[in-house]
Specification:
By secondary structure, the protein is mainly alpha-helical. It has two domains: 115 residues, Farnesyl Diphosphate Synthase, CATH 1.10.600.10; 173 residues, Orthogonal Bundle (Farnesyl Diphosphate Synthase). Helix content is 71%, strand content 1%. It is built from 14 helices and two strands; from the N terminus they run ααααααβαααβααααα.
Length: 289
């Protein structure tokens, strides 16, 4: 039996809070009237990602994602679904005119995660980043009413920068899961082999490859900077919050963190500084380098 709309939104809110995402604080910065829509959106992305990451054979993960795609597409086309997240998701898409491709592009990217990952070129990395991060960025902007072509175009670079930072942070963790998101063309350029990715300490040529990827992420952040100035002042805090935490993390990685194995994390002081910058963003260009 399908849940009521209110029950569905409550379910999405519960999924979001249970996930413990670093983005939850940014979600709380959305205007109250639009916050439930962001929770519905996040619940969809979380549920989709969980299907790709579940402890199951690759074939099962692929099949489950394909079945989920059919259910989601059916719901968007007016079919009744008993999944508790979908009434809220469909209502959010209709209310804020979210294109269906935003949801389906995320699904396609998560299908990449369902098996061992090897990306050949930077173009493939960009496509992956657009699917897992660009979709989130575009949907959040549309929920805020920020739909100008200039803003949406700039958001692509911003999302790619954030996801590439994520990739750099999680190199070791992803390797353990059979996933290599750094493109083969970059690794070949620096003669990086699988044995280097598995080594107890990072060889110099692997660090050089990571530095090149980090420099690319930094350029993307800089390319995206004009987007924030084009946002309405009241809409800046959640978008700055989603971005600045990762930009500061990239600075930490570029400052020596790439030489160390493991997951780099911002300290308490850095997190507080990010929050101060977020709160000041309606008045000051705190998103700049």
């Amino acid at each position: 039996m399908a849940l009521s709309l209110a029950e569905s939104y409550a379910y999405c809110r519960q999924v979001t809070r249970a996930a413990g995402s670093s983005f939850e604080l940014a979600m709380r910065l959305f205007p109250a009237a639009r916050r439930e829509a962001v929770y519905a959106l996040y619940a969809y992305f979380r549920l989709t990602d969980d299907l790709a990451d579940q402890q199951a054979p690759t074939a099962q993960r692929v099949a489950d994602l394909a079945a989920w795609r059919e259910v989601v597409q059916g719901a968007l086309q007016g079919q009744t679904s008993t999944h508790p997240a979908l009434p809220a998701l469909v209502d959010t898409c209709a209310r804020y005119e979210l294109p269906e491709r935003v949801l389906l592009d995320c699904l396609s990217a998560c299908q990449t995660d369902a098996g061992p990952v090897r990306l050949a070129t930077w173009a493939e990395v960009d496509t992956y980043c657009d699917g897992v991060a660009g979709t989130v960025g575009e949907a959040c902007l549309r929920i805020l009413g920020e739909t100008s072509p200039a803003v949406l175009d700039l958001s692509v670079a911003n999302a790619r920068a954030v996801q590439l930072t994520n990739i750099l942070r999680d190199v070791d963790e992803d390797w353990g899961l059979g996933r290599v998101y750094l493109p083969a063309e970059l690794l070949a350029k620096h003669q990086v082999e699988d044995t280097d990715l598995a080594a107890p300490s990072r060889p110099a040529h692997l660090v050089t490859a990571l530095q090149e990827a980090a420099n690319r992420a930094d350029r993307l952040y800089r390319d995206a900077e004009p987007m924030f100035g084009q946002l309405q002042a009241r809409n800046r805090p959640p978008i700055v919050a989603m971005t600045l935490r990762y930009r500061r993390l990239l600075e930490l990685l570029r400052g020596g963190g790439l030489e160390q194995r493991g997951r780099a994390r911002l300290g308490a002081g850095a997190r507080l500084a990010v929050m101060g910058a977020v709160l000041a963003s309606p008045l000051l260009p705190t998103w700049r380098q």
